[in-house]
Design a protein that fits this description.
Blueprint: H1 2-42, E1 51-58, E2 64-68, H2 81-92, E3 99-109, E4 112-120, H3 138-149, E5 154-162, E6 197-204, E7 209-215, E8 222-225, E9 228-230, E10 236-240, E11 247-255, E12 261-266, H4 270-284, E13 288-291, E14 298-305, H5 309-318, H6 322-337, H7 342-355, E15 363-364, E16 376-377, H8 379-390, H9 395-400, E17 425-431, E18 434-442, E19 448-456, H10 462-479
Parallel strand pairs: 4-5, 5-13, 8-11, 9-11
Antiparallel strand pairs: 1-2, 1-19, 3-4, 3-14, 6-7, 6-12, 10-11, 15-16, 17-18, 18-19
Amino acid sequence: MIFKQITKFLKHRLFIGAFIILGQTLFSQNTTALNETLNSLVQHPDFSPALVGVHIVSIDNNKEILSYNAHKKLTPASITKLITTHNAFYFLTPEFKFKTTISILGERKDSIFSGTIKITGSGDPTLESRFFKSRKNILSNAVIDFFKYEKLNTIIGNIQVDYSIFDFPSTPSTWLWSDIGNYYGASPCGLNYKDNSITVFLQSDNQKVSVLKTEPSEIPYVLVNQLTVKNFKKDSAYAYCCPFSDTILLSGAIPKNRSSFKIKIANPKPFNLFKEDLKKQFKENNISFSHLPTNYLLVTKKDVFSPPLSKIVAVTNLYSNNLYAESLNFYLGYKKFGKGNFLTGIKAQMQLMKKQNLPVDEVSLFDGSGLSPMNAVTPYFFTQLLVKSYKSDFKNEYLKSLPKAGISGTLRNFGKNTILENNLQAKSGYMEGVRSYAGYFTGKSGQKYAFCIIVNHYNGSPYEAKKAIESFLVKACNDL
């Protein structure tokens, strides 16, 4: 009897031991394969002079799976938006809405109104934005509806815009001169309007470039055209403009022999465009407007709300929108310190991250969007942020905001027809000499992982760098 029990016990121990050895062997095999995959990335010919940082962790237990220069601060580019949007969700909640206030101050006599139309901005980036077309004219319509309801057809007074919630001008000193005049370098304003951008339509022949028109058609700026033509297909035209300037320089080149070629540039004073558009809509609605300085008491007030933060964050991350990210950064600064600018926004974010026990010594921020080449963040920091987001109350909204490989946003052409398609969700980053990706994927085993890859100062083209990182992620996903 005792002999049978001993035999049974030994068989059980042998089974468990064999199982553990098998598991260790499989893990060892996976580790070997993963290290080979890492070597193929680090030893890529274009990355030999580059700084490469990689970190992968298991979401379940935050266990480190792969690490290479994970604690080195690197320039992250647009994956910086993962930080700003995480902090916005954490502090403001996904249901938060920006509130723009319309105040009507004055008096009426018959159908004539004498007074001031005051718009108090909140930094809402969605007003007349191309990403929210269903909300067209939402602010100006609210103004016009008041006058039509009150049967007022004549306005004698002024339109006043209070954009003081954010400092203006607000361009950070660490942004590049070649960026700030272009649409992606548009600075946030207390009253953001039409994505703070202007579309310029150009025409070219074999020798010169002409400006056909702008959208909007009337702009309070002088365009100095120094554009040339070249025999290529790409757009290398840039706009240069100083804050408060009324002159915008167009430089660079566009392709030859184009009947119409459009570029988008930053609008340094979006609030002026809103005022002009409102006057046009008064005219379209048979309401005459004549300017006269006034000082009256409040008659009525109306608030115009933005879409919820969850939808704003979706645009920010899906389309890598710098203006949206910086507006959130500024607003966090305003909520924490009573004034919205780059410095208060960054200070607010650092405090929020410290409160969440994130490794703040591994992040140096100079803006909220990643456009500054001075930003420096470790891959380790990003994986810790991603794990924190995944286990947060706003997990679902955060995940919905991230592009899916081969499907949506900035990753729609990344990982197509591979294990990454409709699996990997991540934010990408790109600027001269920088390629980065951070997000989530499910390995072949079914386990979920958070990852970050940052490459600085590589040789070769941005496309080749992207393909090298894509190949690494395909192999890593199969290895895991």
